[in-house]
Design brief:
Length: 100
């Protein structure tokens, strides 16, 4: 998963495992629930208001996210094995996927 708080082009990334039972966990140690309906994929974080929602197309999801506390952003997800053709810049002390 690639996420960009404020949609300014400075994406960060983390792995994410989506489980068949409607739960997920990411490489930053966060977890939550997900749902897929009518070509949309949405997930939230356990014990937090942060939520992501996007359009599901083939092996990718593209959408938006919000903490519902003033922080919004853009994200995309690629199924494991889909190549990425660009380098991500690492910026020290960046906001994580939950908006912290």
């Amino acid at each position: 998963m690639f996420y960009d708080w404020n949609c300014d082009g400075s994406y960060s990334k983390t792995s994410m495992t989506v489980n068949a039972g409607g739960t997920w966990i990411n490489g930053e140690g966060y977890s939550g629930q997900w749902v897929q309906v009518a070509g949309m994929f949405m997930f939230n974080f356990n014990n937090d208001k942060t939520a992501y929602a996007g359009n599901l197309a083939s092996k990718s999801v593209t959408g938006i996210m919000s903490t519902f506390g003033g922080l919004n952003g853009c994200f995309y997800m690629l199924q494991k094995g889909v190549p990425t053709n660009f380098a991500l810049e690492h910026v020290a002390h960046k906001t994580d996927s939950q908006g912290k």
